[in-house]
Structure formats: structure tokens, C-alpha cells
Design brief:
Layout lengths: L16 H14 L8 H11 L1 H35 L11 H5 L5 H11 L1
């Protein structure tokens, strides 16, 4: 994803009353040359003037990420147990196409697994 494609680089459209106020407020603070206010400018202003809001978002994001990691570990343990029950007693890597489709398995992972079982 390029910098231009990232949400933080996008121009904020003032299509609601709150956005109208916020874009005008942030625009007055940053004075962008092109008169376009980006999401990054809004975040900078919020961090400076309302850090509790940004902290609450960051905390929630961290908690959700941590919960997802725990869920992923639990799922990985289940898959490992299933492989052991199938007779793959070594516990060696067995490619699961479902996981590969979601980017969890890389070619490097496969190479390491081949070396470990050789």
C-alpha cells in the first residue's frame, strides 16, 4: 500500500456538520497550501488538544489486537492437535490451504518446515 492509498493521507470530506467544523478548525491550525485537510492533520490536532481521545482509541486497538493474537494461538494449537491426531506425530508443518489464502503461510515458512523434517 502506497502512502497515497493509506487512510491517514486521505483528504477529509466535510460531508457532515461535525466534519465541517473539524475540517475548518484543523485547516485553520495547519494552513495547508492546497486547502485540503487530511486525516493525518486531524489526528495531529486531536493528539495535541484531546490526547485522551486518541489514547482511548489506541488502547482499544491494542486490546483488540491482543485478543486476536490469543485467538490465533488457540486456533493454531487446535490445528496442531488435529495434525498430531491424524498421525503426523512429528508435529511438523503441514500446509493448510485455508491459512495460506489468508497470508499466514509464506514460502519461507514452507522452506523452514522442509528443512526441519529433512
Amino acid at each position: 500500500m502506497t502512502q497515497e492509498e493509506r487512510t491517514i493521507s486521505q483528504t477529509v470530506e466535510d460531508d457532515t456538520p461535525m466534519k465541517e467544523w473539524l475540517v475548518e478548525y484543523v485547516g485553520n491550525q495547519h494552513n495547508p497550501e492546497d486547502d485540503e485537510v487530511t486525516v493525518e492533520m486531524v489526528i495531529e490536532s486531536m493528539a495535541k488538544e484531546f490526547p485522551e481521545f486518541i489514547l482511548a482509541l489506541a488502547e482499544e486497538n491494542w486490546i483488540r489486537g491482543y485478543q486476536q493474537a490469543l485467538s490465533d494461538v488457540t486456533e493454531g494449537e487446535k490445528l496442531h492437535k488435529i495434525e498430531l491426531e491424524k498421525g503426523n506425530q512429528s508435529g511438523a508443518f503441514v500446509k493448510d490451504p485455508h491459512l495460506a489464502d489468508h497470508g499466514y503461510i509464506t514460502e519461507e515458512d514452507e522452506q523452514v518446515a522442509k528443512e526441519e523434517t529433512a
